[in-house]
Amino acid sequence: MQLGESMPLAGVPVVIKDNIWVDGWRVTQGSRLFADFVAPCDAIAVERLKKAGAIVVGMGATSEFACKGVTTSLLFGPTRHPLNPELTPGGSSGGPATAVAADLVPLAIGTDAGGSSRRPPAHVGVVGFKPSYGAIPYGPGFAEPFFDISVIAPIARNVADAVLAFEVMAGPDARDSDSVLVESGDVALPDMRVAFSPKLGLDTPVDPVISERLEAIVEHLAKSGLRSVRRDPVWPPGATEEALMPLQHGGLAELYGAAFQKDLEQFDPDIARQIERGLSLRGVDVAAALAASSAIRTAFAAFFCEVDLLLAPTVPCVAWPLAQLGPAMIGGKQVSPRAHAAFTPFVNQARLPAISIPCGRDASDLPFGIQIIARRGRDRMLLHAAVRIEDEIRALPH
Amino acid sequence: MNVHEIAAAVSSRRASAVEIVRATLDRMAAAKALNAVVTVDAERSLPEAAVVACSSVKACLLPASPL
After folding, report:
1. Is A199 an active-site residue?
2. Which of A29, A200, A303, B17 is the most buried (most CB within 10 A)?
3. What is the pTM assigned to this prediction?
4. Domain definitions of chain A by residue range
């Protein structure tokens, strides 16, 4: 800190997800393999937060290697939902999201490679912002089991706080060759072309309480001058989350396959299964997943040639029991354990910015969120619109 | 308090960064059963808060360098 420098986060306590390096702190990735690892330096994002006056007060729980949609690990056990301890906040940034929702800190920093910092915030009723890939420099830190999609993501109680944290952390750094400048946000809201996609163009169930609330929000936004058209992205055949999973499984196997073969007891059984699958993959399987990722990116690019903002659910369901990987039923239909995550991973594959804002609660008072997505690099335009949409949602009765 | 409110309060010396961090550590200890925060290190956080408290006051009192 130099004299005369501004400190936009002066004295702000912040929790950092336990997979981001903080100089001198134990950082474990929720893994027994890293139980005693002490970070040798700050990640660039953390360095910038500290320079702006933020104080790191703790490391937020993550699932092992941030590779699971609930937050539990052999090292620390399960993280509990702040509104009901029998439920999970989801994952993998369940610790940071819960820390903000439980009013422990006003700001937490997560990571997001498939929705990890949008779904948990949606489940606990706070804001989670996934910036464009490269908008916030990544690392120095752990090698990632994902291929160039994971981002640093602020989690806060409101959009304005997430914006402030983003502006502190954003901007290129020579240590991250993928880090880039993002565009300015000066697009007038009435000029924006907004689309609403109730299921993001996917054949997947959504709980009626969420569908109905999103419809009401879209109608309310139209009355207040932010009109949208109903429009789905058009996905190429075979573009499913399942088709992408060889990337994560192969990545995990490449990083931890040898340790797994030496002592599988060190791993969360759910992560062990992913590594096992990764070890059995053929080159052609990984190539097919890369092709699917590329096709998703192309489909989103075409969509955002004609649209500025896309509104969609963040999650198709509310939080579920702690011991399950996902809810057994969504929208009255039996679903696979990953069905709860349907609406977030494609955004990562396309490297787009997206924010989740709390938008309603079910009959049990459990929160859910609306996701706003934009073209890569238009983070500031997205955030500008999100501030307005957040205000409108707050004005709308439940 | 939210992020903006804390930063404004600390910068204007209406609140102390050390007290804010101390209160945060107390809240985290009381909410341990949630298992949201898995590592806490007060011996690192409190001295950093003290440095920020000092720097933020100086930052407010001195204009930004033109260089």
Report:
1. no
2. B17
3. 0.96
4. 13-395
